[in-house]
């Protein structure tokens, strides 16, 4: 994904002027040598992680029925987590964070 940003002036904004310092004895800034600041084209590239976060934020990411089922099993003492699956997913997330995905 590539997004191009093209800045523009709002109707109420005045152009920005760059002032150079006068080398005279007064040390005040001179207004004689001014030039307008020209807008430039900027671009932003989103990483795969940013794209995944954006996609995840669109839908319902929490299954409340599943959460309630697991909560009940934890309360009953019948919940048995799969340590291998948890470790595998933690390693996969670590790889994504470190940029090795």
UniProtKB/TrEMBL annotation:
Kindly name one Pfam family recorded for this protein: FlgM
For whether the record's keyword set contains Repressor, the answer is yes
Can the keyword Transcription regulation be found in this entry's annotation? yes
Keywords (alphabetical) are: Bacterial flagellum biogenesis, Repressor, Transcription, Transcription regulation
Bias (Polar residues) ranges? 29-43
**GO biological process assignments:** bacterial-type flagellum organization; negative regulation of DNA-templated transcription
Q: Where is the region Disordered?
A: 1-43
Q: For the Anti-sigma-28 factor FlgM C-terminal domain, which residue ranges apply? A: 42-91
Explain the purpose of this protein. Answer: Responsible for the coupling of flagellin expression to flagellar assembly by preventing expression of the flagellin genes when a component of the middle class of proteins is defective. It negatively regulates flagellar genes by inhibiting the activity of FliA by directly binding to FliA.
**NCBIfam families the record matches:** FlgM_jcvi
Family, according to the entry, reads as follows: Belongs to the FlgM family.
Listed name of the protein: Negative regulator of flagellin synthesis
| Upper taxonomic lineage | Bacteria, Pseudomonadati, Pseudomonadota, Gammaproteobacteria, Lysobacterales
């Amino acid at each position: 994904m590539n997004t191009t940003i093209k800045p523009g002036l709002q109707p109420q904004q005045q152009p920005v002027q760059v002032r150079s310092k006068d080398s005279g004895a007064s040390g005040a800034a001179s207004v004689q040598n001014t030039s307008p600041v020209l807008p430039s084209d900027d671009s932003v590239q989103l990483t795969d992680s940013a794209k995944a976060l954006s996609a995840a934020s669109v839908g319902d990411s929490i299954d409340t029925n599943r959460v309630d089922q697991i909560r009940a099993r934890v309360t009953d003492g019948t919940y048995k987590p799969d340590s291998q699956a948890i470790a595998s997913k933690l390693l996969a997330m670590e790889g994504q964070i470190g940029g090795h995905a």
